[in-house]
Write a structure and sequence with these properties.
By secondary structure, this protein is α/β, with parallel strands linked by helices. It has helices at 46-51, 67-83, 98-105, 135-144, 158-170, 179-183, 189-193, 196-203, and strands spanning 35-40, 59-64, 91-95, 111-117, 145-155, 174-176, 209-215. The protein has a single domain (2-6, 35-215), classed as Rossmann fold (3-Layer(aba) Sandwich). 33% of the residues lie in helices and 20% in strands. A seven-stranded mixed β-sheet has the order 3-2-1-4-5-7-6. The protein is globular and about 45 Å long. The structure holds S-adenosylmethionine (SAM). Residues 41-43, 46, 63-66, 69, 97-99, 117-120, 195-198 line the site of S-adenosylmethionine.
Length: 220
């Protein structure tokens, strides 16, 4: 049940400094520290670790529903932070159910990047409502993303790839990036080989389906 999660009532009630003990020290009040990148369903944290050196000034957080996995990611970030001063001090993980609690953690327009890498496919039609990209949740993702912010999805399941792309395409707050824009995005090369799932797919030489959408101003 969700009773085991500790969830802030509102974003400004959450003390991010605890998650980033080293980088957080210089922030005086709870809400000064602003996370910009969110990896939803981060698994073992591969993406956070991969992108941290490229974005030394951005705080990033992984959201992971499994307790042990989220603990592991926190420890992994802490250990890296100790051994590479100043490189991994802005990445961490929260155990939460992102499908329920995203607006508790992030204020309107706060985020510049939202990642959904190799999400659970939930193959059966009856379980499609459990998919992490779906119409009613897109409103929450649009709310948290700043105008111009980017939402990335990648999967090795073709049907899920089309599903995610279809849902995002019809939403008035999202506009798909052109192939050229995707190619020029420096984050994109990290999406396939960067995470544990991505590495598995790459090793098996499997196909992947990537889409990137920009948050545009819509009727919100
Ligand atoms: N993104 C990682 C990667 O590419 O290696 C992990 C992919 S794994 C297939 C999907 C992850 O999403 C799992 O670790 C799962 O526990 C997590 N997850 C599923 N539903 C979630 C939810 N509602 N909130 C947070 N995490 C969730």
């Amino acid at each position: 049940s969700d009773a085991q999660f500790s969830v802030p009532l509102r974003p400004d009630k959450y003390d991010w400094r605890i998650l980033y003990p080293s980088a957080g020290k210089s922030y005086r009040s709870l809400s000064d520290l602003q996370v910009k990148f969110v990896d939803v369903g981060c698994g073992f944290g591969g993406l956070l670790v991969k992108i941290a050196p490229a974005f030394p000034h951005h705080f990033a957080i992984g959201l992971e529903i499994r307790d042990k996995v989220s603990q592991y990611v926190k420890e992994r970030c802490k250990a890296l932070c100790q051994h590479h001063k100043g490189v991994y001090d802005k990445i961490s993980c929260i155990r939460t159910n992102s499908m329920k609690f995203l607006p508790n953690f992030f204020r309107k327009g706060q985020l510049s990047k939202l990642f959904f890498l190799f999400p659970d496919p939930h193959f059966k039609t009856a379980n499609h409502r459990r998919r992490i990209i779906q119409r009613n949740l897109l409103a929450e993702y649009a709310y948290a993303l700043q105008i111009g912010g980017l939402l990335y999805t990648i999967t090795d399941v073709e049907e899920l790839g089309s599903w995610m792309s279809d849902k995002l395409s019809v939403h008035p707050c999202f506009q798909q990036l052109s192939a050229e824009e995707v190619q020029n995005d420096p984050v994109v090369p990290n999406l396939c080989g960067g995470t544990e799932e991505g590495t598995k797919v790459k090793r098996n030489e499997g196909a992947t389906y990537l889409t990137v959408f920009r948050r545009v101003s819509g009727p919100m």
